[in-house]
Amino acid sequence: MGNRARWRALTATGALLGAGLLALPPAAAAAEYERVVNGDFASGEVNPWWNGAGTTGSVVGGEFCTEVTGGTVNGYDALVGQNGVAFEAGQPYTLKFDARAATPQPISAVAGEAVDPYRQIARTEVQLTTEPQSFTYTFDSTLDFPTAGNGQLAFWFGGQSFDNTICVDNVSLVGGVKPPPGLEPAAPVRVNQTGYLPGLPKRASVANESTTPVPWTLKNAAGTAVASGQSTPKGLDPNSGEHVHLVDFSAYETVGTGYTLTVGADTSHPFDISPDVLKDLRYDSLAFFYHQRSGTPIEAEYAGAEHARPAGHLNVAPNQGDHDVPCLAGVDCGYTLDVPGGWYDAGDHGKYVVNGGISAWQLLNEYERALRVGDASALGDGKLAIPERGNGVPDILDEAKWEVDFLLKMQVPDGRPLAGMAHHKIHDAQWTGLPMLPHLDPQVRRLSAPSTAATLNLAAVAAQAARLWKEIDPAFSAQALAAAEKAYQAARANPAKLADPNDGTGGGAYSDGTVTDEFYWAAAELFATTGGSGYRADLTGSPLYKGASFNARGFDWGSTGALGDITLALVPTALPAADVAAIRQAITTTADGHLAQMAAQGHPAPYRTQDGSYEWGSNGLIANNGVVLALAYDFTKQAKYREGAFGVMDYLLGRNPVNYSYVSGWGEQPVRNVHHRHWANQLDPSLPIAPAGALSGGPNSALQDPISAGLLKGCPAQRCFVDHIEAYSVNEVTVNWNSALAWLANWAAEKSTVDTPPAACSVSYQANGWNSGLSASVVLKNTSAVAWNGWTLKFAFSGNQQLQHGWSATWSQQGAEVTAVNLPWNASVAPGASVTIGFNASSPGPATAPASFSVNGSTCK
């Protein structure tokens, strides 16, 4: 779910036709092509209609009713409209609509251009009464917007001294000779446009009507055939609506660039074969978050000159800013908050706790997973182009902290009603248009009411942060943990404060009717950090305990139970080993379901809904299901899961029915025109396209914007996509989709080569015991010929000893088994080098040394 874009409205700079429109003769033969989307408001949704400044609208009783603030001078000072309306020069159009007003007043219906210079085609003024009236007008278009790009239909309500409520319904605009464009066929041969890795499957999908195998040829950059074979007919593929063949050229392993695959007369985009094809995507996908930072300049030193911009929302004109922000009208909080910083959520300027929560968690989990079962060295200090590099803290943690700090600011202050709860979001009071750089946003900013979901997001992420910063910054760790525990108790005291689903003006509503999953997630994070018995009871007593949240659809900002389970599967706790095993089994079982689904598809993607449709942000769900496949490999080392996770990257990078790489800057045909207010080159050539590494939301069967609704009506699920800046329901970007990509891209870079056997090691153990305890020093030595980039020590106590305190590592105990994981500063151990760690434990019996030790799974001498 994301924002609803609003283009700048028509202004008086256009030619006014006025009442003369009424005198136009009826069109002789207007074509029956409907140009307006959602004109009857039967769905109960306003979208894709928008409200301009000074108006607030919603669907009431099947009508689109707008509250209009009086005191405006011009009609266009208060207006509603729809963009992406197609007009063809010289063609006749018939406009019909019903309208009424609480207080009689005139309004104008205006057809024209949505962007500068805002030319008008036709305008008529009508007088509304308190009773609904039907209006019909015919005109010829003087402008040409045949592809539904910059055309607009608007109703002007301003120019009156009094407040009013105006309702419209049954809006229809019929005309033109060209039908809505519909789906354009994509090139038939679809590959991962970035490339394939040696030792992994190399497969392509081909749209081809043949019912028998067809020949294929793999060519190198010089055009020389290097491999050939026959395709495998897959039959009709429901997700693409095409007959699909599969091509498998996995046997070809020669590293090179510029390969192409030819099937009949059709040739793919070029691609590489190399173990390094995905190495840099983890950094590009993480760079997205620096670009989205609020309250700080985005500097050319880090982002490049093209994407540099001033700081936004700092209470510097024309901004009204993120300092001293009051609550939304109707939300009586009695205070203001200073909430600068954080990440802009998507293509708008809103900042949402529930979306920021999962995004920050995923970056932190990316690092924590690498610490515990992977390689954290690639995420260390100096790896990202951000101002904090070189400060001794892993850059990914610095980036995540930018958002965590903001989340903490959203907490209701002590001494106030609902103290400890978190405000759901902050954004503009009204939608802004495109393009709009953050420092030019003139809208006032407003806090939405606190919600239980937002509060639990804060509790979960702050508890996770407390765990990861415990050794890095103990003061911040303590601050985060105090905020987390306060938030959790506030949520328990207010378990049903749900976000208003109608609070969608100026920013997305992000409403969530079920918070059982957020409670589970927060309890899991707090238990993993503190070991508290109350959190354990809440966790184990939840119906979601032991992996019940994992499913075929996947997890996202509104379905967060799986996040808690991922933490419990990775972080050692005092939970029974059998329960942790059950969580890991739920992950692998779900991963098996994803693999079965992918095997049945023409363009494999691990995602499915009950009705087969695709949702807003389907690519984010697909990437998160790739995370499940990746974790299944981490826990089992079974090659099928590694292959499946890389198959997800194939889909996102071009092996899909629209033949786009959904990641900007990656592949031969990447998305360029993502929905964004300052990556708006399609609207303003002086502005940039998206930087490399931004993940488009991808196919959405609901087509919830006028561009996609006009172009893609009737599309099969995986083809409901167009690369257009105003197609926000299919081509938006958000922090939580990019956090999913970043997690998966880092894993893929790490796993681009097969895991090597653990390095050799030796352990020296010395303990001093007394009647009730012992203190031990442990020296780990790297006896192999390669450096350790992260280590995990495991051993078992020989008696009933209980770990009490440890140093120079993250220590935990589960049953008799003890685990010590490196800290950031001692993760790297060169060949022949050693690292010394230690612990204190209670010891009812003699301080007998453990029978054996292992480092990274290898038994030490």
Q: Explain this structure to me?
A:
The chain is α+β, with helices and mostly antiparallel strands. It has 15 helices and 36 strands. Strands 12, 14, 15, 18, 19 and 20 form a 6-stranded mixed beta sheet that branches. A 5-stranded antiparallel beta sheet has the order 1-4-9-6-7, with no helix packed on it. It has a 5-stranded antiparallel beta sheet with strand order 2-3-10-5-8, with no helix packed on it. β2 (55-60) and β3 (63-68) form a beta hairpin. Residues 754-861 form the CBM2 domain. InterPro entries: 6-hairpin_glycosidase_sf (IPR008928), 6hp_glycosidase-like_sf (IPR012341), CBD2 (IPR001919), CBM2/CBM3_carb-bd_dom_sf (IPR008965), CBM2_carb-bd_dom_sf (IPR012291), CBM2_CS (IPR018366), Cellulase_Ig-like (IPR004197), CenC_carb-bd (IPR003305). It is an enzyme of class 3 (hydrolase).
